[in-house]
Structure formats: C-alpha cells, structure tokens
Specification:
By secondary structure, the protein is α/β, with parallel strands linked by helices. About 55% of the residues lie in helices and about 10% in strands. It is built from 47 helices and 27 strands. Helix 14 crosses helix 18, helix 32 packs across helix 47 and helix 46 packs antiparallel against helix 47.
C-alpha cells in the first residue's frame, strides 16, 4: 500500500525516444502556462482588431487607433517574452538531447547484439578483447566497435555477477567514456556504470585509474568487478593504504599498477605520484602513466576536497615546548577577553542610548553594537574600537583564523617578559600564539577533531570519518595537541605537495560520477571542462521530500526531532497532526490521480512499481472517502490537539490497512557533537535503541549501514512490536554504500531521513536525502531547523525574528511552508555562488605551485631516467660562467664589494653607487665615513623607539634590551642610568658613540678594491675555487666580456673532457681496492672484469701482476682516452653495422653497451636507407659514449638528484611560510594574490639558480664509488652520507601535513617509501661480503684453507 504515499516521479526521459515526445509531454503538464499563452494571444489579437477597426467602426470612443496600437505593442512585447520563456521550458535541454541520443545508441545498436554475444563461450568472449585491439590497429574507429564492446561487457556482467546492465547504466558508461560527469541517483549502480567505459579505454591502450572514497570501497568494488573483467581478458588491481610502498613487499602495489585497471583512493594515487617524484631510480617508480581516471563521488573529491593538499613532509623543529607556553598565553588572553566582554556588556545599553558625538553617524559604531549583542567574536577591530571595546584578538570563523590585536600582543609580551615581538629572536612567538588562539576559538573538539588514545585525529567535515595519519600543518596540529593536553608531535615542514584538484587535472582524460553534481555544473565546466549529464533513473523515484520545519530555538527543534524519530521508528508516521494531515492529503491526491487514470483507461506509471496490485475503482472511491472524512474531521485545526491527532491517526490506519509499522529512520547531523547529544536525548527520554555512526564509531561503518534499513523486534511485557532501526550519522556517513531495505519495509513507506540542520550547500542536503528511495523504493525526508542555526542566522537577521515574535511565533511552534523551503534553497544557491568565487580565487593561488611542481618534476624525471644529463650540466656550467662574467665585468663590482665590506665591518649599510674605488683609498675612506655616519644616525633613530617611548612611564621601557643594544656601539649603560635619563639625551649619546666608532675604524681593508685588476683577479680565483680550472690573469688583461666567456668555456670543456677520461678509471680502482682489501688477486680480478665488460680485451688478473696502482691507472686511462677521443669504438660500431642489422644489431648493442641502451633505445630501421643508417649509427655512438663514461653519468645523476631534492625541500618550506604570511601584504595596499604570484615566482627562480650553482660547485670535485656487485653500467652508491635511498623518519598524510623526505638529509630519507601514517621500520643489518667457510680457500690468496690461515684469528 506504499503507493498511496508516492507513485513516483513522471520523468519522461526515462522512456522517451524523441525530442518531440519530451516537448509534448511537458506541454501537457503545463496546461496552466499554455492557457496563459492563449489568453495573451487572444488579448493581443483583440487589440490588433480594435486598432484596425477604430472607434468609427466599433462604436467605442475609447478604442482610439493610437491608443490601441500602443497597448498592442506593449502586449506584444510581453507575449513574445512569455512565449519565448515558455518555449524554453518545454523544449528539450542539451542534457535531454544527450540522453535521447545515447538511448538511441543503446536500443538500436547495442541491444540487437545481445543475443549474438550471449551464445559465445567464455574463451570466445575473452578472445574478443584481442580482436577489438586488432581491429583498432587495422584502422577501424571506436564507433565501429563500441556497440559490440558494450554488449560484451553487459554479457560478462550477466555471467559473472548475474546482473544484466540497465539501459541507464550503459547511457552513463558512454557519458564517462566521453570524459564527462554522470549524475545518477543513489542505488542506480554507479560503480557498475564505469565498466563499459573502462573497457573501451583499455582497448585503446590507456591505463585506467578508478578513484573511490575509502579503502573498504576500493576492495569491494575491485573484487566485485574482477570476475567480470576476467571474462574479458582485462586485469584489475587495487591499492590501499595498508600496502607497503618500498621493498619486496611493495611488489603487490607495483603489480596493481601494472594491471589494466587500478582501483584506489584519491590519497593513495596522490601519494604514489609524489613518492614516484622523489625516488632516485625509474625502476623504483610505480604509478606509470596518468591516462584516464574515473572519480566516484566526484563532487566530494573535486569540489569539497579540491584544494585539499596531499603533503609529504619531514621534521621541521625539534623543540615543541613553545606550544605549551603559547597555549598558556592563549588561555590568559581568552580570560582577559571574557573579562573585557563582561565590562562592555555592562555598559552597552547606556552606550547605545547615549553614544559619543563622534560615533552617532559612524556605521562601524552601530554595526559593532549589533554584532556584540549577537557574538563578541564577530567584531572586527574597527567595530571594537568604535564602541570602545577592549579586544585582545580577532576571530574569523569562516576562515578559521585568529590573530592577536595590538592590545593582545602587549599583554602577551608582558606575560612572556621578552621585550618586543619585533626582536629577531622573538619573531616566532606571534605565530605560536595565533595558532593557539585558532585551536581554542576556531577548532571544536568532536566537530573538527577528536582526542583518542593520546592523539588528535582530524574528522572529515562531510563524512564524519576519522582521517588517521592526517594532521594540520604549520604548527596548528601541535597547538590543538597542546590545547587538549596530549603528547605534542614534532612539527613538520612540507617536502612535496599537490592539491587533489591539480592531481586530477594532470590526467589526459578525466571523468566522474555521483548522485548530486548538477548544482555544481558551472564549476565542473569552468575548472575541469567537464559537462554534467543527469541520467534518468531505471525506476521512478518515489521519495517524498516534506517541507522544512523551522522552530524558534534549538531546544524546541531537538524536542521535535526526538518526537519525529520516536513516532516514525515505532509507528511509521509523524508525531504531529499537521505533518500527518499532509500525508493524508498527499495520499488523497494519489488516489484521485489513479481514479482518473483508471477512468480514462490509462495505465498509470505507478503500476510498474507498486508492490501490491492496484485496487479497482470501487476500492479507490472508498479510500478517498476515508481520507476526506479524516481531513474534514481535522478542519482548521481548532480544538483538542490530542483528539485531532487521534482522528487523523485513525483515518491513516484505515487507509493503509495492514501496511503500518515502525519504519527505519536515518538521522543526519552536522557534527560528532550533535550526534552524541541527540543520542543521549533518545536514550534518556524514551530509551530508543539506536546506532551512532560518526568519527568515534567509524570502524563499524559497514556493519551499521547494513542494519540502517532494517527493523527489529521489541518486547514490552507480553506485547511484541516491530520497530524500525534508528541510525544517527553525520550527513555524509556511509556514503558509497546503499542502505538496503529489510523485508516488508518498502510496503510501509521505506526509510525515513531526518536532517537536523541545513548545510550551506544544497548538494550536501540532497546527498542526505538520497540515502532513501533507491531503485524505486519508497522513502521520505524532512529537515528540522531553528532560528539559531548558522544558515538561518546568516540570512535571517534580528529583524526577522522580531517580526515573527510580533506575529505570535512562540516557543514550540513550527513554521512549515513550501515557500520558505524554496527560499532557503535560494539562499543556499547564493552561498554556493560565493563559495565558488572563493574557490576560483584560491585556485589562482594554486597555479603558482602547480606550475612550479610541473616544471620541477619534469626536469627531475629527466634526471631519474638519465636523459641528456651531460647536456643539462653543460647548460648549467655555461649559465654559471655567463652570470659570473656579467657580475665580475660589471663596472660597479669593486664598489659593491667595498659596500659589502663596510656592512660587515662597520655594521652600517651604504649604497654601492655612491662609492668610487678608482679615486684611491684616501678618497674612498672619506666617502665611506661620511655615508656611514649619516646612515647610522637614521638607523639609531628608527630603532630607538622600539625600546623607549617618551609617552609612557620609564618603568615600561625595555631597558634591558636597550642596554644590550647600546653595548655594540661601545656605550655601557646601566638600567638605572637609562631610566633616569631623558629620551632625547639617550638618543644623542647613542648617535655620538656610533659615529665616534666609525671615525676611529681602520679602513685599510678597502685597499684591494682600488686595484684596477681587482675584478678580473676575482674572476680567475672564482674559476679556480669553483671548478679547479686555472686561467692566467694575463689572458684576461685585454679580453672583453665575449672573449672572456669564450676563454672560460674552452677551459671548462677541456677540464671536463679530462674528467670524462680519468674519472671512470679512478672510480673502478677505488672500488676494487676497497672491495678486494688485502687480497691482491681479488683486486686485480675486479679490475680485469671491468676492463673486459667495457673494452672486451679478455684480460685476467695476471695482466696486472707487478704493476703499481699508478701504472694501472695510466694504462687504463690511455685505453679509455683511445676509445673516447681517438675513434676506436667508432670503428667497432662500423664493423657491427656491416655485420648485423635489425634485431641482431639491437641484440649486439645490448650485449656490448649493457644498461646504457636503456636510456637510448636502438631503433633498427631500414638498413638500405641512408637516413635510417645514419640515425642508427648516431644512436649506437651515443650508447657507446654513455657506456664509456657510465661512472661519471651516475655521479652526475646522483649530484643532480641530491641537489634537486635538497633545494626543493627548502623551497617547499619557504613557500609554506610565504603562503601563511602573504595576507599581511594587504596592509600595504597590495593585492596578496598578485604578491604571492610575484614572490613565489621569484623564489622559484632563485631555487633554480641555487640548483645550478650547487651542481656546478660539486660536479668537478665530488667522488662516488660503485656498488661491489655492479660494474660499468651498474648502480652507484654515495660515498658520503646522504646518498642512496635510505628513507626514514617520515609520514604521509592527507591535507595540510604529513611526512616524507629526500636523500640530502638523514632526517628525510624514508619519505618516498613510507605508506600513509606509518613511521619507518627498523632496517635489518646484513653482511655485504659473502661468508667464507672454514674449509674453503682463504680469500687472501695464500692457497691455504681459511681455517689454517686468516681464520685462525677467529
């Protein structure tokens, strides 16, 4: 009998096949609108007739032609506009046309193939994948194979999971394949929709990544689809946070990425991307190509969490005690603020009645009064000052920020007894204290976070899930830990980061699916270029969304909520008479529509969904009579409330017959705190059994959701009752899993959803409502609001509440009107538009890091893969030389050096352009003394005010700081002397002491800058210190800038060519001597093996007998030089080209050049083609060159990666500081966004220059040793600390802070290899050299057994 409540929607798109069918259906449904159009048309026609006939022929004096013409023109404009709007309403939209076109594809091209595919065996079905790929390779288009491919997926689903995909699911698949967003209601099988789209992408050779919201759904969805894709010959894998990220156990993760389709969460895909861009070897990277991604719950991930940063970070500071101190300061400031609030509240009425003359016309004064009455925290600094309110801090709850005012800073300075915050050693204290204030005032326990097991765990705003391993950055997390008095973790700094938005924009193709995306369609299109297509449901939607109920206070709302939950869970209908009256009226309308449909011989759409057969006309008339009697008995609601409710209840029970019983209820709350409070009310007031799903009970999510749609038996004495299960959850809890109704629940009305508060986004409310009414099931929803809710306080001011009070709005009364519900939705839409503007504005901030990340990671990946390293290094060397010559050849260079000397020795900054060293030492000294004396006066005058304020009592002066500062000028003052002195006298004393110090200073150190050859001598010294290259000063005596650059480039290349020849030989000798130890034969054998691999000479250890290391070095150096510079290897290549071709040539190159071929694959083309032969020869020469200098290439690679990682880490830290401090630029009337872009770009360019300088500093000097088990072409290990891939002491977490690190610092080593939320594991120490048995030959070469030789000492 549940069809009495709702027969379902009448969406014509569910079955329509043509645009005209949609048009006529909507036109029939808009009869009143059409009647209005006809009325306007008739009126327009009448006016035209009157204008033509005029008063003479009509006999009506008022029917003047000019009047009628004007009236007809006005009516015509209205007629045209109205009919245009009407046509727009009735015509199929673009969304409608897309759905109709895709339905035609399904019905005309896919459905006819179903029987043909069904007769295929499993092997034949699996072979179709190879067939489709061959057809695509042969030139067929995707349109040619798509229908058959979709039919194969549908058949595989039927065989593997006994599910034949619905028409709407295939339509959704095509939407995803076209890289758009498919909006499908809850229960329509969104996880199944993507199968056909993924299959088509796999056929194109693309890697597919499937993103869902948590590890549970990742495993569930991957395991569910695996048998389906197994039948199609497609592999499916998944990654979760509990999988290892490094070592042998990480092969499971690698195998998952090697599959055609990989499931995972957004966090895991993002962290693996960051980890891969921190690894030192391409072999260690896992994720691979980013071809095609489908994002489930795309609105949550790409809208709600779009700017959530995935951050890999490492330890920043060791001392965490400052957070405890800052927390105490914050508590002190809050106590002072509360006292100030009480004082202002005491005098507020008098202040409002008798405002100061200067404040009467000041809008800040009046706004301050209103805001203080609402909440003192809402006051801005200007408003607080206008009403004379002492404000110690300002809170911006919408931005979750708080910062001290000037009064607060002074109170904090006094409490800390540290003088001023502007002293360099105290500048971090405002940051600590502001974070502590944020923790206390903007972050609430059990809402934004929970405290569990001596740690703070962040709670997801939308799902209520605890996000283990995640922490806020920049010290905020530590401030919250100090507030809750749990163990404070070490603060972290960002080492690698990417927002989810930028992560998914990197994919070549992006698609998504969700149940509520249309409200954000503009944002999807503008930011991601994704069109949202709403897919009609497979069955009519039978959910009833009742009007919101609005109460005066939160207490009244909670009372009504408890009654609603009790009534629905125990009886299946509401507890108040007016809501029950609405249900009866709705049932009556349903019955009337069914009677009319039966009377006209039409089959109502409800017939396809009603679970009980529809009654005949006689029964319908009887039911209408029952509903009418109950409605008439209620009348206008006057009389005894209990009696009125009883009459309605009796009518409802008669109407529903046996289909009455307790319905399951899902209650959506906005926070953990709200869910706990409501839970306590239910237990305390009625003892109602219920489950609570929030961050505290997240581990039981699957179990709780599975029971949410069920009923249970309650025994009260001898009476047994069936009650619906009650589940209290955050609005988005359980998202991604359907709530399945238990037996018989659909017959009594299905799941009832209760919302405790409206969210500022309509989409979140719709997602809560969408938990019921799946796949044609009935259901209902209602939101309960109060005038104290945040959303209503935002849009309904005090005047609205006053007006309602005047109209008799009392405690316990409810406002229930469809117009108000629509008004709230319009208000939500305004908030959504504002939020979109905010997100779009913040996106422009993200563009800076996005560009930097792409540029840096692209260059780093080139290094990891070993592509063009020598060219990159030579480019850096050339740029470094060019910059150095520009610097040293600058005519102002001696003056700049002189100014720097003055700054270092006299501690006074002077401008270099005011100095001229060519005038000689005497003149230069005089100029320096004059400029320094002037500058020191200004500096002292500016700084003096930080210690002494003539307007305050001397007891408040910072006398200790002033005494310490004066000592640097040789002026020893006691604190007592300072307090007794006049400020002007103190200032003059300081200036005289400083100027005297300057006059007595020895300036003979300026003499070198007066030498005319000073700059060129410095250039020569720079080259010698930086590169070890000697350039005679005489060569530069007459050289101009271009000549000098050419000289240095030639010297550099000559020096590096020598290094290419000598370094590989030197490296192998060092390795052999280190690995062989005292065993000479072992040393010689290792050297011989290296020579044979590289030169193919067939030597044995005997070749080196009797030779000293220096003789061996010279011999091998000569051989390497012969191969590198004298063309010996070129002749070998020419012989191979004459002997081999095709695959045989490639095989020869792999055997001859080893792993050098990996970085330069050989493309053996047509040997008869001169162009192809020349290209192959060039490739072979490059491989040969890389093989001969392999050891140097590995050195270059190591130096580049270590430098890149170290400076990128420092850059990330600097960008963190810039991001948190850029808002202060607004006080200087500068746009923070423009300043952030400008400053961020400058810092990135500086980082690139620093990379260049550090690499060029090291590349001529650093040494590296090969691993014992690998020779030329093998891996390398750093000789010094910080090399290799020993990662430790890091974490990875989502949004705002985590951990990982780089090879340049021991504290950061394990970053790239750690899984989310875990610290590094202890490493097992293993023997590097093989163990020697007692009876084996002694490795020293004596010929004796080990136990009789070196083993005796053991």
């Amino acid at each position: 009998m549940n069809w009495l409540l709702s027969v379902g929607d009448t969406d014509i798109l569910r079955d329509a096949v043509s645009p005209m069918a949609v048009f006529w259906h909507r036109m029939r449904g808009g009869r009143i609108l059409v009647a209005g159009s006809l009325a306007l048309t008739a009126l327009l026609g009448a006016l035209i007739v009157l204008a033509v006939l005029g008063p003479d022929r009509t006999g009506w004096v008022w029917a003047q032609r000019d009047w009628m013409a004007v009236a007809a023109s006005v009516i015509f404009a209205g007629w045209a506009g109205y009919n245009g709007w009407l046509l727009f309403q009735f015509m199929p939209s673009r969304n409608d046309r897309v759905v109709l076109r895709l339905r035609e594809l399904v019905r005309q091209r896919i459905d006819p193939l179903e029987e043909r595919v069904r007769v295929l065996s499993d092997d034949q079905l699996r072979a179709k994948t190879a067939e489709f790929k061959q057809r695509l390779a042969a030139g067929e288009s995707l349109d040619d194979i798509r229908p058959e491919a979709y039919a194969c997926v549908r058949e595989a689903s039927r065989r593997a999971r006994n599910h034949r995909q619905f028409e709407c699911q295939l339509i959704g698949a095509k939407v995803l394949e076209d890289c758009n967003v498919a909006e499908m209601r809850t229960g329509e099988g969104k996880t199944i929709v993507c199968y056909a789209a993924n299959y088509l992408k796999v056929l194109q050779g693309l890697k597919v990544h499937m993103v869902t919201v948590n590890d549970y759904l990742v495993k569930r969805d991957a395991e569910f689809c695996r048998p389906i894709f197994d039948l199609l010959g497609v592999t499916v894998g998944y990654i979760t946070s509990d999988m290892e990220t490094y070592g042998a156990e990480a092969e499971i993760r690698r195998e998952a990425y090697n599959c055609d389709i990989t499931y995972g969460t957004n966090s895991e895909f993002g962290f693996d991307y960051l980890r891969d861009n921190m690894k030192h070897s391409a072999r260690d990277q896992m994720q691979g190509r980013q071809d095609y991604v489908v994002v489930d719950e795309v609105d949550s991930i790409l809208i709600d969490e779009a700017r959530t940063p995935l951050i890999i970070s490492g330890p920043a500071h060791d001392d965490v005690s400052n957070y405890r101190v800052a927390d105490n300061i914050a508590r002190m400031l809050i106590a002072k603020q509360q006292a100030a609030n009480r004082e202002t509240a005491r005098r507020l009425n008098d202040l409002e009645q008798n405002p100061p003359p200067e404040a009467r016309n000041n809008p800040k004064f009046h706004d301050g009064i209103k805001k203080f009455r609402a909440d003192p925290l809402w006051l801005s600094s200007e408003e607080a000052e206008a009403i004379g309110h002492m404000q110690y801090f300002v809170v911006e709850l919408d931005r979750k920020s708080a910062h001290m005012t000037e009064h607060g800073a002074k109170a904090a300075q006094a409490e800390l007894a540290i003088g001023t915050f502007y002293d360099t050693k105290n500048m971090n204290w405002p940051h600590y204290i502001d974070n502590a204030l944020r923790a206390h005032l903007a972050y609430q326990k059990d809402k934004e976070y929970v405290a569990v097991d001596d740690q703070i765990i962040i709670v997801d705003e939308f799902t209520g899930r605890m996000m283990h391993g995640r922490q806020w950055s920049d010290g905020l997390h530590q401030a919250v830990e100090a507030k809750e008095k749990v163990t404070i973790k070490q603060e972290t700094q960002t080492l690698a980061t990417i927002t989810l938005q930028n992560l998914f924009k990197m994919y070549q193709q992006l698609a998504g699916m969700t149940g509520t995306a249309m409200t954000e369609a503009d944002e999807f299109m503008k930011i991601y270029k994704l069109e949202v297509i709403a897919i009609p449901t497979n069955q009519p939607v039978r959910r009833i969304d009742y009007n919101d109920k609005i109460y005066k206070t939160r207490g009244s709302k909670l009372d009504a909520l408890v009654e609603e939950i009790r009534a629905y869970s125990q009886k299946g209908y509401p507890a108040d008479a007016y809501s029950l009256l609405d249900m009866l009226k709705m049932a009556r309308r349903t019955l009337v529509s069914l009677r009319d449909a039966n009377g006209n011989g039409q089959a109502p759409e409800a017939a396809s969904v009603a679970q009980a057969s529809l009654p005949g006309l006689e029964r319908i008339d009887e039911q209408i009579r029952i509903a009418d009697e109950a409605i008439r008995a209620f009348g206008n609601g006057e009389g005894d409330e209990a009696a009125l409710y009883a009459s309605l209840e009796e009518g409802y029970r008669k109407l529903m017959g046996s289909n009455v019983g307790g319905r399951p209820v899902l209650v959506g709350t906005t926070s953990v705190e709200a869910s706990e409070e409501l839970s306590q009310l239910l237990s305390r007031r009625y003892g109602i059994e219920h489950e609570v799903l929030n961050a505290r009970h997240h581990a039981r999510e699957a179990e709780i959701v599975a029971k949410a749609g069920q009923q249970h038996e309650v025994v009260r004495g001898k009476k047994k009752e069936i009650h619906g299960n009650v589940t209290i959850a955050t609005n988005m809890a359980g998202r991604g899993t359907d709530i399945v109704l238990g037996p018989g629940v659909a017959a009594i009305g299905g799941l009832h959803v209760v919302g405790t508060e409206r969210h500022e986004s309509r989409r979140i409310d719709n997602q809560l409502r969408g938990r019921c009414g799946r796949q044609g099931d009935p259901g209902s929803s209602r939101f309960f609001l109060s005038m104290e809710d945040e959303l209503l306080r935002l849009f309904m001011g005090e005047w609205m509440l006053k007006m309602l009070n005047m109209l008799g709005f009392e405690e316990g009364m409810a406002i229930d009107d469809r117009r108000i519900s629509k008004g709230i939705e319009r208000a939500q839409k305004k908030v959504e538009e504002r939020n979109f503007g905010i997100r779009k504005n913040l996106l422009e901030y993200d563009e800076v890091m996005d560009f930097q990340r792409k540029s840096f990671y692209s260059m780093r990946q080139q290094v990891v893969e070993g592509r063009g390293l020598s060219e990159m290094i030579w480019r850096m060397i050339d740029e470094s030389v060019a910059d150095a010559i520009d610097r040293f050849y600058d005519p102002q260079y001696p003056a700049i050096c002189a100014a720097e000397w003055v700054g270092q020795n006299l501690n006074v900054p002077i401008e270099a352009d005011k100095l001229d060293p060519s005038d000689g030492l005497e003149e230069l000294s005089k100029t320096v003394r004059d400029l320094a004396a002037y500058e020191v006066r200004g500096t002292i005058q500016r700084t003096f005010g930080e210690y002494v304020d003539s307007d305050v009592d001397p007891e408040e002066w910072d006398v200790r700081g002033l005494a310490s500062w004066a000592a640097q000028f040789g002026l020893n003052l006691t604190q007592n002397q300072i307090r007794k002195a006049q400020p002007d006298e103190l200032l003059e004393q300081l200036i005289e002491a400083a100027q005297k110090r300057i006059e007595e200073a020895d300036l003979s150190g300026l003499e070198p800058y007066c030498d005319s050859q000073f700059a060129k001598a410095r250039l020569v010294r720079w080259a010698q210190e930086k590169f070890g290259v000697e350039v005679p000063l005489e060569d530069l005596a007459t050289a101009n800038r271009e000549d000098a650059e050419q000289i240095f480039r030639e010297k550099m290349r000559a020096a590096y060519k020598i290094r290419e020849i000598e370094y590989p030989v030197d490296a192998v000798l060092q390795f052999a001597l280190h690995a062989g130890g005292q065993n000479v034969n072992e040393v010689y054998t290792r050297i011989a093996n290296w020579v044979n691999r590289k030169y193919g000479l067939g030597w044995t250890y005997e070749h080196f007998a009797g030779k000293s290391p220096q003789q061996i070095f010279q011999e091998l150096r000569a051989i390497n030089e012969d191969y590198l510079t004298n063309g010996k290897l070129d002749r070998e290549i020419d012989q191979a080209l004459a002997k081999y071709s095709g695959d045989a040539l490639v095989q020869w190159a792999q055997q001859r050049f080893g792993s050098a071929v990996d970085s330069q694959p050989i493309e053996a083309g047509d040997a008869a083609s001169p162009e192809s032969a020349a290209r192959v020869r060039e490739q072979l020469q490059h491989c040969a060159y890389e093989m001969l200098r392999w050891e140097l290439t590995q050195l270059e690679r190591h130096v580049l990666l270590s430098t890149f990682d170290s400076l990128w880490k420092d850059h990330m830290y600097s960008m963190d500081l810039l991001r948190h401090g850029i808002g202060l630029r607004g006080y200087a009337e500068r746009d923070p966004k423009i300043e952030y872009k400008r400053e961020g770009t400058r810092m990135f360019n500086e980082m690139m220059v620093n990379i260049r300088e550090r690499v060029t500093d090291l590349i001529f000097k650093v040494q590296i040793a090969m691993r014992p088990d690998e020779g030329a072409g093998g891996r390398v290990a750093a000789a010094g600390p910080g090399g290799g891939l020993a990662y430790s002491n890091v974490q990875t977490t989502k949004a705002d802070a985590t951990g990982a690190g780089f090879a340049s610092a021991a504290a950061d080593q394990d970053a790239a290899m750690q899984k989310q939320g875990e610290a590094a594991k202890p490493q097992t120490i293993r023997r590097e050299a093989p163990r020697v048995g007692r009876n084996e030959p002694c490795p020293c070469g004596s010929g004796k057994k080990y136990k009789q030789c070196c083993g005796k000492a053991r």
